[in-house]
Design a protein that fits this description.
Layout: H1 6-18, H2 29-54, H3 60-70, E1 79-81, H4 83-90, H5 94-106, E2 110-116, E3 119-124
Helix pairs in contact: 2-3, 3-5, 4-5
Protein name: MarR family transcriptional regulator
InterPro entries: WH-like_DNA-bd_sf, WH_DNA-bd_sf
Region (Disordered): 1-30
């Protein structure tokens, strides 16, 4: 019965580990800037989500609208929103969607930018700090 050659297994295993060293080009300044931007955006999303979820004046309808929109809206640029699309997607009446959007605007969670055809462009408020709406 022959015994396996542990020396060759160890050396080949070590060679495999040497080849797995991280690529330092992953840490270029442009990638670090992107990572910082993403971290900042996640922080803003956490702050704004906390503000919405803890505000007792936010209705269930407004919370539903915010939850749906928060996946589409950005802090740094406006996105067009059709209230009819929201109503269909959420199974809500358009007047209820309108009321929810107005509440989120009053609380300065959503910022109305402009009108684009029938759509209104909104963005999330990046200045919302301290978890208060």
């Amino acid at each position: 019965m022959t015994q396996p050659n542990t020396e060759s297994q160890t050396s080949s295993g070590t060679a495999g580990l040497r080849g797995a060293t991280p690529n330092h080009s992953d840490y270029r300044p442009s990638n670090l800037t992107t990572l910082r931007t993403e971290a900042t955006m996640l922080h803003h999303h956490d702050v704004i989500s906390r503000a919405v979820s803890t505000d007792r004046e936010i209705t269930l309808e407004a919370l539903r609208v915010f939850t749906y929109l928060s996946r589409r809206l950005h802090f740094d640029r406006s996105v067009p929103v059709l209230q009819s699309e929201l109503a269909d997607a959420l199974g809500m009446q358009r007047p209820n969607v309108n009321r929810a959007i107005k509440l989120l605007e009053t609380k300065q969670i959503l910022l109305r930018e402009s009108k684009l055809g029938r759509a209104i462009t909104f963005r999330l408020n990046p200045g919302l700090e301290g978890g208060r709406a």
